[in-house]
Fold these 2 entries.
Entry 1:
Amino acid sequence: MRILVTGGAGFIGANFLHLMVPRYPQHTFINLDKLTYAANLASVSEAARCPNYSFVQADIADAHAVQAVFAQYQPDVVIHFAAESHVDRSILGPAEFMQTNIIGTFNLLEACRTTWSPISQGLFQHISTDEVFGSLGATGYFTEHTRYDPSSPYSASKAASDHLVRAYHRTYGLPVKLTNCSNNYGPRQFPEKLIPLMILNAVAGQPLPVYGKGQNVRDWLYVEDHCEALWSVLMQGQVGATYAIGGGCEKTNLDVVHTVCRIVAEETGRSVSSLESLITFVPDRPGHDLRYAIDSTHMRTELGWTPQESFMSGLRKTVRWYLENTAWVEDVRTGAYRQWLATNYEHREQLLPAGGKEGSA
Ligand code: NAD
Ligand code: DAU
């Protein structure tokens, strides 16, 4: 298979490539990424050493660029991770979310529709989120049949993209598979998200900002377990089907932050109480969903998938990764991955935005 992976320099896409590129040398993986603030090519440095990997910088919101990538690489599978992914950013500035998440998905679907002949020869796998379902109360679970009810501009844009993907299946017969996953954590996550932010702030002795009272609940899944689930869906999932993927691991945000403090204390020799004293309650996120929880029965019974990592083991691995990968942390914080490009890529100018001006992406 020639597999086009969009957003492969971001958190989940990079972990996916890190696992699958060396494991499956019989498949070709093309990483298409715009390289936004959330991307870091250092996250795929090991995959990039494999002969079955290539990278192309492109903006999925640019229809011509997407068509050109299809013409050059002729993918027969698209695994679509690329998105603006951070809820808080979508509240502050929703426009980019509409461009990338809605128009970008539309451009990819159009490229599939107009390139694959017959259309049934390809496969479009769409990576989506449980946030499209809105908020749960104290009980119940999201399933593949839950009604859409998104709360934020981010989740509304992801909901729109899901609808487009299903519409292309019903209208044009495009082979598609959809997944809606709960909160991921693990190595290579941009430190604006709760867990890496808390780890790095705790290590630096900076405040640990908890929204509202910290009683919102998320269902946490270690990123490698998500990637394995996605590979199972790719290989064994039914065309046209949706799979809800969750960790079966509900925690309040305050519980998560206390656990981060405990593990960072154990790993660095600091006292738990000194780290917990950094917890600072801050004003709540507008439209903050109370609780997410996924019923993954479909994944478990049809595909035999189950998460391998417990929250404690996954979180310890994650804390260690951030403690050991200080250069990566500095890169994403400062944007210095551009310098990494300069020394690691011969044709660096291809990876920079038009005009080749650093700092303008
Ligand atoms: P991320 O923000 O870490 O990475 C997104 C990647 O997409 C970046 O490399 C970025 O450069 C790229 N990108 C953004 N706009 C682009 C554009 N216009 N053209 C090309 N590339 C572009 O995101 P993530 O956390 O890895 O999430 C990946 C996907 O998984 C998203 O679709 C997200 O909605 C979904 N998802 C995430 C989670 C989670 O907990 N992180 C859970 C469920 C689903
Ligand atoms: O559920 C899947 C979604 O999980 C994905 O679709 C999104 O792309 C991903 O960003 C994530 O969304 P959340 O909004 O749940 O993740 P975030 O890490 O931003 O926040 C997790 C919880 O922690 C949420 O209830 C808000 C809270 N929070 C977050 C931050 C950044 C805080 O209390 N303090 C913080 O500083």
Entry 2:
Amino acid sequence: MPPTFAFDQPGVRIRLDELPTDPPKGTSRKEAEARLAELGEELFELQDLLWGARLHSLLVVLQGRDTAGKDGVIKTVAGYLNPRGVHVVSFGPPTQEELEHDFLWRVHRHTPRKGEVAIWNRSHYEDVLVVRVHGLTPASIWRERYGHICDFEELLAEHDTIVRKFFLHISHREQQARLLERERDPRKAWKLSVGDWREREHWDAYTEAYEEAISRCATPRAPWIVVPADAKWYRNLVVAEALVEALRPYRPVWEAHLDALGHKARAELAAYRAAARTS
Ligand code: ADP
């Protein structure tokens, strides 16, 4: 089982440079891939129960610097799920209409309904990340947002949403390698963006912004998981493991609920047949 760097208490100081971006020494890629396949099966089963029981929903928030692998996680981990119950939403720069609302308006409409999974590629955290780094709103405004974010996520949890937030943690060196690789590979060059290199110049400012966001908005019901993301195979394993661990405790509740529903449906059918016989 991979060690997870999960943060679920607000206010604990976080230093990203003290947290690993590499898999732990001695981790075997082959074993990790085999374990991921098992977790994928369990994830599929758990999602099926979530869907049937409709007692909870799951919100997965993916954050990370450019090239950190948000799309890769979606492809791999969401690939294990039944698409019927999954919504993937990407949050880019806000539209004029979105800017004319409070910052949570655009995300709130994409929260998952009971039985469903929502995966957010970027999120409301951009409003304390890119907005802070580039001074897109005055500090007096973004500073207030940490509290609003905690309250918002608490509200979702109150409504039986299981919330897990992932920071895909890559090193400065690995990001450079990935950006250069995109440039070299004709099949990947379409992903190139001057913006990615420009944002890289703000590496330290983003580090500070992420540290504060993770530290202030880590709560027991909406924890942050800092995922070592320099190796894609390990990154996928950590995310899958954390999701299975988040859902697994609910299995007995969902199974009991589905049994009760099955019992009721059978009783209704028996009553219907009995009535048909006597008429
Ligand atoms: P990605 O880089 O995730 O593959 P895009 O190229 O569409 O996808 O980038 C999304 C961009 O939108 C990022 O540069 C991000 O910083 C920006 N963005 C997201 N949310 C906000 C926000 N609330 N305010 C300003 N910019 C934002």
